[in-house]
Write a structure and sequence with these properties.
Elements lengths: L2 H5 L3 E7 L4 E3 L3 E6 L2 E6 L3 H10 L25 H10 L6 E7 L2 E8 L17 E2 L5 E5 L2 E5 L5 E5 L4 H10 L14 H13 L4 E2 L9
Antiparallel strand pairs: 1-5, 2-3, 3-4, 5-6, 6-10, 7-11, 8-9, 9-10
């Protein structure tokens, strides 16, 4: 297999705003959201640039801040610009959709559904055991799988031809990254998807049985 083909299957993490969020830039920045207007007085240049890009669709924030960390990078390894941007984005978590991509193609999106939604994916070790809570419902919107349950602050949407493979990995509850569906997904993608699903309340791990669902 060619090296460029391998690179195209690497993990990507993208950020975007909910489709129903509008950003108005001016002396202050106003976000029109399903839960009312949110006014940001004198937002920094990094936040303004991130919001501008995120309102256009999924974007890698490494294009805003070089060295922007992935979900599994410890905070003490963040650079100063990343720390500034993540701190500014923290109060806006309920407006931000987080995406996992294979190369440039999003395969999983976590959509916030509540003004109280927060999202902090935990590190996921290889070989862990997972289970889907009984109240999680699988449905299909326009053909793509959606994981949701009543009262949850998020839903998970799966996209594209890799969605069935990824759904198997989320449902099978093992640490085996191989799939019964032809070509396996990259291990980093499966591990990130499980971390996102845990943070969204759609997957439980043995280590997090006592954790509160977000």
């Amino acid at each position: 297999m060619r090296i460029d083909r391998l690179a195209a299957r690497e993990l990507g993490e993208f950020w975007s705003l909910r489709e129903d969020v509008t950003v108005l830039f001016g002396q202050s920045t106003v976000l029109r959201t399903p839960w009312g207007e949110l006014r940001l007085e004198r937002p920094g240049a990094l936040l303004r640039e991130a919001l501008h890009r995120m309102q256009l669709g999924p974007v890698s924030l490494a294009n805003v801040v070089p060295g922007f960390p992935g979900y599994d990078v410890p905070e003490d390894e963040w650079n100063d610009a990343s720390r500034e941007l993540l701190g500014a984005l923290a109060p806006l978590q309920h407006l931000i959709v987080r995406h996992i991509a294979i190369g440039a193609s999003p395969v999983l999106s976590v959509v916030p559904l509540s003004p109280r939604a927060t999202f902090r994916p935990p590190p996921i070790a290889p070989g862990g055991e997972f289970r889907v809570p009984e109240d999680v419902v699988l449905r299909r919107a326009g053909g793509d799988p959606v994981l949701a349950h009543e009262g949850c602050a998020h839903r998970i949407e799966l996209h594209g031809p890799d969605a069935p493979r990824l759904l198997v990995h989320l449902q099978e509850g093992t640490g085996d990254f191989r799939s019964p569906l032809d070509v396996p997904l990259p291990q980093a993608v499966v591990r990130a998807a499980r971390a996102y699903a845990v943070a969204a309340g759609m997957l439980c791990t043995a280590d997090l049985k006592g954790a509160a669902r977000l």
